[in-house]
Design goal:
Low-confidence stretches: none
Number of strands: 0
Radius of gyration: 21 Å
Number of helices: 17
Distance between the termini: 22 Å
Mean pLDDT: 82
Shape: globular
Strand content: under 5%
Order of helices and strands: HHHHHHHHHHHHHHHHH
Number of domains: 1
Length: 452
C-alpha cells in the first residue's frame, strides 16, 4: 500500500509506518540470529563463537550494501513526495544499474580478502575454519541480499512498509526450516546455516519483485525510463555512498573492537556474541523509528514541508525516549534469560558475562535511539556526508577502546566501548541536525522541489 506521509498527523503516521518496519527488522535479525541459535544449541559453543566472530566483518559489508540501498531510495521518496512519478521511475532504473555494479564489485573484493581479514582480526585458531566457511558463503550470496534490500527500500520510500514485512516473515520461517534441515538432518554445521540465509534472502527478494509487478503500476518501468542517466546516478551515489560508508566506518570500529575481544579467548567471544544478539533484539524499535524518519523526512522535503519535518522529528525523539526506558528494564533484568536462546544453561560463566554486558549497555539506550533518529533524518534530507561524520567518530571511539582499553582492562572495557561510541556520535549529530534544519529553512521551498 502506497502511503503519502506529507498529510495527516505526524505521530500517527510515524507509529503506523514504524510498526511494520519494527516487525520486519525483528524477522531480518532472525536470519543471523537463528543461525546463532541453531549452531549454539545443536553444534556447540565453538560454532556459536565462530559465527559471532564474523559479526563485525559481516556488518562491514552487509551494512555497506544495505546503507547504499537505503540511500538510493531517498531520491525516490523525495520524488514521490513531490508527485513526480516519471522522475521516480528514472531513479529506479538507475538504482538497478548501480546495484548490479555494486554486487559484482563488492562480491569479488570480499571473496578475495575475507581470509586475510579474519587473520588480522585475531580470530582464534580453534574457530577459524568455521568462521571462514560461514562468512565466505554469506559474501558469495551478496547479490541476493542486495536484491532484497534494493526492492524493500524502494517500497518503503513510497510509503509501503508492510509488503517487505510480509515477505520477510515468510522467508524468515523458511530460514528456520532450512537451518534445522541442513544442521540437524544433514549435519552441515555452519555451512548449512549460511546457505539457508542466502536462499531465504533470495526468496524474499523474488517475492518483493513479484508483488511490485502485480500491484505497483507507478513503479513499472517504461522504455523511456530505462536510459542510463549520469546526472541521476551522480545524485544517487552522492546520497547512497556516504550512507554505505557510514555503516562501514562504524563497522571498522567494531572490527577493531572485535579483534580485541577475539584476543580474550573463545569464551569471551561467545559471551559478547550472545550479548550483542540480545541487544540487537532489544533496540529494534529504536532502529525502526530511525528508518521511518528517513522516509518521512524524504517525502516531506519533496513536498517542501520543513516545519512538518521538525515536528515529526520531535515526535520521533519522544517515542524513542519512552521505548529506551522500556529497553533498559528488558536489558537490565531479562537480558541473561533471553541469552538462553543462544547458550545452554550449563554455560554459567558465559551467561554471567552476558548479563554484565547488557546491564551497563542498557543504561545508554537513549543515546543510541537518538543516533538512529537524527542520522536517518539527516540522510533523508539529503545530507549524507555530514551524517557520515558520526560514523567516523564512532570508529575512533571503538578503536581507542579496542587498541588501548581492552588490553588493559579486559572484558570490562568491552562492555563500555559501545556506549562511549554512542555518546560521541550524538555530540556530532545534534549540531549537524540543527545546521541542516536552519539551512533548509533559509532556502526557498521551490528549490528543493526542483532538486527532486
Amino acid at each position: 500500500m502506497v502511503r503519502d506521509m506529507t498529510k495527516g498527523k505526524p505521530l500517527k503516521l510515524i507509529v503506523s509506518f514504524c510498526v511494520p518496519i519494527l516487525l520486519g527488522n525483528v524477522f531480518q535479525q532472525f536470519y543471523n540470529m537463528v543461525d546463532s541459535i541453531v549452531v549454539g544449541q545443536f553444534v556447540g559453543k565453538g560454532a556459536l563463537a565462530a559465527v559471532g566472530s564474523t559479526g563485525s566483518l559481516s556488518f562491514l559489508i552487509l551494512g555497506f550494501v544495505g546503507g547504499i540501498c537505503t540511500g538510493f531510495s531517498i531520491p525516490v521518496a523525495q520524488s514521490f513526495g513531490a508527485g513526480d512519478h516519471a522522475t521516480m521511475r528514472r531513479y529506479l532504473a538507475n538504482i538497478i544499474y548501480l546495484c548490479a555494479f555494486v554486487a559484482i564489485v563488492v562480491t569479488a573484493i570480499t571473496l578475495l580478502l575475507t581470509g586475510w581479514i579474519l587473520r588480522v582480526m585475531n580470530t582464534p585458531e580453534d574457530i577459524f575454519k568455521d568462521a571462514y566457511t560461514y562468512i565466505i558463503i554469506i559474501f558469495g550470496g551478496l547479490s541476493a541480499i542486495i536484491f532484497y534490500n534494493m526492492l524493500a527500500a524502494v517500497l518503503r520510500a513510497i510509503g509501503d512498509s508492510r509488503t517487505p514485512l510480509y515477505f520477510l516473515i515468510l522467508s524468515a520461517l523458511l530460514n528456520i526450516a532450512l537451518d534445522l534441515i541442513f544442521v540437524i538432518l544433514c549435519s552441515m554445521g555452519v555451512m548449512g546455516v549460511a546457505i539457508a540465509t542466502v536462499i531465504s534472502q533470495l526468496v524474499s527478494g523474488l517475492l518483493c519483485l513479484l508483488h511490485i509487478k502485480r500491484h505497483f503500476y507507478i513503479l513499472h518501468l517504461r522504455r523511456e525510463d530505462m536510459k542510463f542517466d549520469r546526472k541521476l546516478c551522480a545524485r544517487l551515489m552522492y546520497i547512497g555512498l556516504p550512507m554505505g560508508f557510514q555503516f562501514s566506518i562504524t563497522a571498522i570500529g567494531s572490527i577493531m573492537l572485535q579483534s580485541a575481544v577475539n584476543s580474550l579467548g573463545s569464551d569471551i567471544v561467545a559471551a559478547v556474541t550472545a550479548a550483542v544478539k540480545v541487544q540487537l533484539m532489544i533496540v529494534q524499535p529504536s532502529e525502526a523509528i530511525g528508518i521511518t524518519m528517513a522516509t518521512y523526512c524524504g517525502q516531506n522535503l519533496g513536498a517542501g514541508e520543513i516545519e512538518r519535518i521538525r515536528n515529526g522529528v520531535r515526535k520521533g525523539v519522544e517515542i524513542g525516549l519512552i521505548y529506551s526506558i522500556m529497553g533498559f528494564f528488558i536489558g537490565h533484568y531479562a537480558g541473561k534469560y533471553i541469552a538462553l536462546l543462544f547458550l545452554k544453561k550449563s554455560e554459567i560463566a558465559v551467561l554471567a558475562n552476558v548479563a554484565f554486558f547488557l546491564k551497563y549497555n542498557s543504561i545508554f539506550y537513549p543515546t543510541l535511539s537518538l543516533i538512529f533518529i537524527l542520522r536517518n533524518t539527516i540522510q533523508g534530507l539529503g545530507y549524507s556526508v555530514p551524517a557520515m561524520l558520526a560514523g567516523l567518530v564512532e570508529l575512533i571511539a571503538r578503536g581507542v577502546f579496542g587498541f588501548f582499553m581492552v588490553p588493559k582492562f579486559g572484558f570490562w572495557a568491552v562492555c563500555f566501548a559501545h556506549p562511549a561510541a554512542w555518546i560521541e556520535a550524538d555530540i556530532v549529530l545534534i549540531p549537524v541536525y540543527i545546521y541542516v534544519i536552519r539551512r533548509l529553512k533559509s532556502k526557498k521551498v521551490e528549490k528543493y522541489k526542483k532538486r527532486c
